[in-house]
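As the next step, I wrote out a protein sequence along with its fold in token form, included below for the reader:
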Amino acid sequence: MRVAQVKEFGGPEVLVPAELPDPVAGPDEVVVAVDHIDTLFVQTQIRAGEFGGYFDVAPPYVPGGAVAGTVTATGPGVDPAVWTGRRVVAAVSPGSYASLAAVPADHLAVVPEGVGLREAAALVHDGVTALALLDLTDLKADETVLITGASGGMGTLLIQLARSRGARVVAVARGAEKLALVRGLGAHEVIDAGSSDWPSHAREALGEAGADVVLDGVGGELGAQAFPLTATAGRFSAHGAPTGGFAPITPEEATARAITLLGIADVQLTPGRRVDLVTHALSEAAAGRLHPVIGAVFPLERAGEAHAAIEGRGVVGKVLLEV
């Protein structure tokens, strides 16, 4: 099978095409012919040699993420009449940057009619995490939510899902193009993160009380600036770290204002829970209520260029790979 493999830690150029043996479906597994592959910012950080304490990988390795494709073979314990030919999505770790993937059958979610495999791939991680975050923070109708990194793959989904819950959405993005996108997706107010005094603009939009929920997908200094915008007794989720680190908020700071502080560890999900959430996301897409924003698609053989595009932050929405 064809793969994109990290030959050593480093820049995007270390992610190169390679050939590996085709996977065989083991007990309770299927083989998926991959159509599209999800990419995540964290994959670029792992490739660069960061986050070694969180992810136990060593070159050469094939990055792990998620795939959308068609079941072509089944192993013992899996009914071929049920699964062969089904369009599916699944989280695959490691080894998602590949033309074939062996996946436990109970990790699969069926892609409904009316949803393309490209769109489905864009929902496997970001749709799941977005839904999990809204459940975790218990966002309610008539509450206000501040979303940083709102023009990214997950941010664009969070805007739509928060609107569907009846929340008021204040979205933080950078630059005119991204601000126009998030406004078009339903954000009630948009804030330009490129402005040095963006927190004051956000405070005006939120009102003196602040945001009931802050969903920080950026981390670092911007995440730290977003924390004071959380209402007293509100909820702050520090789940994003494309800046190189999560928002540096201490439990003591949160406790002083009765703020519930959440992090990426709080959205680590079981395979069964992931299947439930991605099935929900796919059903919302099939109903026309959820639209993943896909900014760029690269062939598998050009995965290094995809990583460069992600790191360059010029792409609006998701970056995918195509087999």
Notes: The chain has a mean pLDDT of 96.
